[in-house]
Amino acid sequence: MAAVQVALKFLQPPETTSSGGIYVNSFSYFPRKRPMSASFAVSSLESTSTEAVEPEIELEFLGPNSRSDGPYTVERAKARSGEKLLRNIMLDNKIELYATYGKVMNCGGGGSCGTCIVEILDGKDLLNERTSTELRYLRKKPESWRLACQTIVGNKENSGKVVVQRLPQWKK
């Protein structure tokens, strides 16, 4: 019976003073209605056959010096189009990017040292345009030279092959 009285107490309007104000100690309970929601997942066997293939860029990195028998050393890597800087792809795949000085004194990809110079031999159209940082550091260098820390590989839509010469300033 006490539970019923308590429940009725909550349903009564709050007590008021003679001046029309509400007592501070009165307590009212108004339960909130929460909206119900449901989500459904539909799977189909047909959806697996029509998955979109993400564009991928193949990269070939030529070494700075040719071997005694003539050809350059070649290292290969792949990357999703438009997701990474050339510098990060090279470092992730353990491909040598810096000369001796650059290994110690590089800026960590901030574009403020110019030690990550590469030459794009093929696939220039698969890279972003030169940035203002590159224009400043590579002012007197060939158009094919880029800073790896400023070069985005792909644009999320294209795919193809890029050939990169590492340390072009050492090329014989």
TrEMBL record:
Domain 2Fe-2S ferredoxin-type: 105-153
Pfam families in alphabetical order: Fer2
One function term, GO molecular function aspect: electron transfer activity
Coiled coil: none
SUPFAM superfamilies: 2Fe-2S ferredoxin-like (SSF54292)
Keywords: 2Fe-2S, Iron, Iron-sulfur, Metal-binding
InterPro entries noted in UniProt: 2Fe-2S_ferredoxin-like_sf, 2Fe-2S_ferredoxin-type, Adrenodoxin-like, Beta-grasp_dom_sf
Cellular component terms per the entry's GO annotation: mitochondrion
Cofactor names: [2Fe-2S] cluster
Protein origin, superkingdom: Eukaryota
Gene Ontology terms describing biological process: P450-containing electron transport chain
Family, as annotated: Belongs to the adrenodoxin/putidaredoxin family.
PANTHER family: FERREDOXIN-2, MITOCHONDRIAL (PTHR23426:SF65), FERREDOXIN/ADRENODOXIN (PTHR23426)
Protein name per Swiss-Prot or TrEMBL: 2Fe-2S ferredoxin-type domain-containing protein
Protein source organism: Nepenthes gracilis (Slender pitcher plant)
